[in-house]
Design brief:
It is built from 13 helices and 14 strands. With 406 residues, it is an alpha/beta fold. The chain has two domains: 4-46 and 294-402, Aspartate Aminotransferase, domain 1 (Alpha-Beta Complex), CATH 3.90.1150.10; 67-292, 3-Layer(aba) Sandwich (Aspartate Aminotransferase, domain 2), CATH 3.40.640. The strands form four sheets. Strands 2-9-8-7-6 form a five-stranded mixed β-sheet, sandwiched between helices. A four-stranded antiparallel β-sheet has the order 10-11-14-13. Strands 3-4-5 form a three-stranded mixed β-sheet, with helices on both faces. The radius of gyration is 21 Å and the shape is globular. The protein binds pyridoxal-5'-phosphate.
Length: 406
């Protein structure tokens, strides 16, 4: 038989499977309480409203909604998105600055394709979103990690790193940040630090990739302007998605960038998939036009806030002493760091035996660290299963701790 592997490109050889997607397969077992995926709660999906909207779309726009669309996306949807982004503080934009993509994941891949030659450096957080790491690594880049604190990416350390790289004649291409309810750490970067980050990008002539899927899932904190709001030089590519506020099955997200960068991304996307799903674009557009989106976001927040509370309270009740866990003010994740001596990747096997799943911290670290951390999703499971799952996990941790020699 032919050895197909020998025919693969160097790039394909270096591609790694996503730890999370593999974990999601394990977590399919209905007996396992899964805190692993970043899944919205299926009870949040507005099925009845969408049923009516689909009927309206078919009746009023069926011929367009079932046809190929332009690569950039349905103009009315782009205009709606631009209008909403302006309300959030992003200045001087129109629908021309908006590109509709097939999930933010596609935007991350597009960014990698546009900016990264093999060996190029890009900066990411420690920890950061695994899908970002995988997308950028598939272009054979070197990812440099900058630690986070309770206010997100440490821009002071970023500045140090950039100066150090400069001495070695290395200019990174971009900084990738998830500044609001970060995945996985749940932290928010305050406005002052956002401005500082833009100043640094201006000084070192870098692009900022601002990934914001969770900004609208706010439970007890104020709205904070996106980094893009402070970008006067057109060097921030902002991206957000309908995945967490409507449906991930739609595969619908968007970027907001300068017209120059948007043009480049459009050309890139032409080769990827010609256009984003036209049908779901029309549905999302009608959903916004009817004023249903903000109402729906409010409902999701009302559903997730108590889940966040159940998770945090259960952690406090069932986890043995010595862990650290901040209370996230939004998003979908709690991030826990356990005492020394525990490796959450190894502990995962015991967790699965006890029918509970999470994502281990190393998956989010480009420096091989994070072995004591784990990410727990609180949006997907019922309140009862959250408490039961955390109880099981507490027992697993207790057992692991008692096996550590003193
Ligand atoms: C930070 C971050 N970026 C991007 C994505 C991908 O989102 P999408 O469903 O729009 O591809 C996710 C999904 O969990 C995410 O957490």
């Amino acid at each position: 038989m032919t050895n197909i592997e020998r025919l693969y490109s160097d790039r394909a050889g270096k591609m790694r499977k996503s730890v999370i997607r593999e974990l999601l397969k394990v977590a399919q077992d209905p007996e396992i309480i899964s805190f692993a995926g970043g899944l919205p709660n299926p009870d949040s999906f507005p099925i009845d409203t969408l049923n009516d909207i689909i009927e309206t779309v078919m009746r009023t726009n069926g011929k367009k909604a079932l046809q190929y669309g332009t690569t950039k996306g349905v103009p009315e949807l782009r205009d709606h998105i631009a209008e909403r982004a302006q309300k959030d503080g992003i200045k001087d934009i129109t629908g021309e600055n908006v590109l509709i993509v097939s999930g933010s994941q596609q935007a991350l891949d597009t960014v990698g394709k546009i900016f990264l030659n093999p060996g190029d450096v890009a900066i990411v957080g420690l920890p950061t979103y695994l899908g970002g790491i995988n997308a950028f690594r598939s272009y054979e880049s070197n990812l440099e990690g900058i630690p986070l604190d309770k206010d997100g990416l440490r821009v002071d350390l970023l500045e140090e790193k950039l100066n150090e790289l400069k001495k070695n004649d290395i200019t990174p291409k971009f900084i990738y940040v998830v500044p609001t309810f970060q995945n996985p750490a749940g932290v928010v970067m305050p406005e002052k630090r956002r401005k500082h980050l833009v100043d640094i990008a201006n000084e070192f002539d870098l692009v900022i990739i601002e990934d914001d899927p969770y900004g609208k899932l706010r439970y007890d904190s104020d709205h904070i302007k996106p980094i893009k709001a402070f970008d006067d030089e057109g060097r921030v590519i902002y991206m957000s998605t309908f995945s967490k506020i409507l449906s991930p099955g739609f595969r619908l997200a968007w970027t907001i960038a300068s017209e120059e960068l948007t043009r480049k991304m459009v050309i890139c996307k032409q080769a990827l998939d010609l256009c984003t799903n036209t049908f779901t674009q029309f549905i999302a557009n009608e959903f916004i036009r009817q004023g249903a989106l903000d109402l729906h976001i409010m409902k999701i927040c009302q559903m997730y806030k108590p889940k966040r509370d159940v998770m945090i309270e259960s952690i406090q009740k069932y986890f043995p002493e010595g862990y650290e866990c901040n209370k996230p003010h939004g998003g979908m994740f709690a991030w826990v760091t356990l005492p020394k001596g525990i490796d959450t990747e190894i502990m995962f096997l015991d967790a699965i035996k006890n029918k509970v799943a999470y994502v281990h911290g190393k998956a989010f670290h480009v420096d091989g660290k994070g072995e004591r951390s784990l990410r727990l999703n609180f949006s997907y499971s019922s309140d009862e299963r959250i408490e039961e799952g955390i109880k099981r996990l507490g027992m697993v941790i207790e057992e692991k701790l008692s096996a550590i020699p003193v």
